[in-house]
Design goal:
Bound molecules: zinc ion
Distance between the termini: 5 Å
Strand content: 15-25%
Largest sheet: 7 strands, mixed
Low-confidence stretches: none
Number of helices: 8
Number of domains: 1
Shape: globular
Length: 283
């Protein structure tokens, strides 16, 4: 499998849309890997993770044929992961010569509900090619050659208190390889650890790096480097990961306090690579 990070920022982007903080100004001045757009990744050429408002930019920057995407997995319905209006210009007279006219969309019921709010903008032909599949935590789905298991994320705690399900992150398996794509989530929930015990070896672990060097602890919806270190150590201790597993940090915010150029060497000392927009890596 190949994983390509198309966008690697949290919701506001980096530099952030309306911000003039020192981190945003530094990112803008340095350019290159310090510039981050909203979260999205592509597995091979046919499985897309998330649909942020920067999807069109990602197509332009990477020369992608997004009509070849057959499977869209949405982690959750925060704006940086799901901009549902984009789907209203898919198919019909908006997109000709598509490689895969049909799109299978895997998500939580709440994510689909966000699309329903804007679906009045789509014509019937567009709607008929979008096939939603509502996921359940720990219940794997088969999408072509991929087996994908949604895992409950430690994120959006307001839902829990309302008795609603968690957002998801994903274990993606294909060609005998395993990718754990863990954004947006804080430290994993106990039931996720129980599940992961049986799921080694995992060849690539992509972890939430939103908070930079700051420790978030179990009550937060994101992670910082001290949390990332705890997760990595536990995965190694459990024998689910080993010395060949790639650990990558992703999903960054100006509130993490650092741009790529500063953060990458610090993370490397602890065994992590740091994602950047356009980074492609073999799983
Ligand atoms: Zn996010
Ligand atoms: Zn800023
Ligand atoms: Zn989120």
């Amino acid at each position: 499998m190949q994983l390509t990070y198309l966008g690697t920022a949290a919701a506001e982007g980096l530099p952030a849309v309306f911000c003039n903080c020192p981190v945003c100004r530094q990112a803008a001045r340095l350019g290159g890997r310090n510039i981050r757009t909203r979260s999205q990744s592509l597995v091979n050429r046919d499985l897309l993770i998330d649909l942020p408002p920067d999807t069109y930019l990602h197509k332009l920057q990477n020369g992608l044929d997004l009509s070849a995407v057959k499977y869209l997995f949405v982690t959750h319905w925060h704006m940086d992961h799901f901009y549902p209006q984009e789907l209203t210009v898919r198919g019909s007279y908006y997109s000709h010569g598509m490689v895969s006219p049909e799109l299978e969309i895997y998500c939580a019921a709440e994510t689909r509900a966000q699309f329903e709010k804007v679906s009045w903008e789509a014509n019937p032909e567009t709607l008929s090619a979008l096939h939603f599949h509502i996921l359940r935590a720990f219940q794997p789905v088969r999408a072509g050659e991929y087996t994908v298991t949604p895992l409950p994320a430690n994120h959006m705690h307001e839902l829990e208190s309302n008795g609603k399900p968690h957002p998801y992150f994903y274990l993606i398996e294909a060609e005998g390889r395993r990718l754990l794509y863990a954004h947006d989530t804080g430290l994993f929930l106990p039931e996720v650890w129980d599940f992961l015990k049986e799921r080694g070896p995992i060849h690539l672990v992509s972890l939430d790096g939103t908070s930079g060097l700051r420790e978030c602890g179990p009550k937060a919806g994101h992670m910082g480097l001290p949390d990332n270190i705890r997760v990595r150590e536990k995965l190694l201790e459990m024998g689910v990961c080993d010395g060949d597993t790639k650990f990558i940090l992703n999903h960054f915010s100006h509130n993490g306090g650092m741009v790529y150029d500063e953060y990458a060497p610090l993370a490397a000392e602890k065994g992590f690579a740091v994602s950047y927009d356009g980074m492609a890596v073999e799983v």
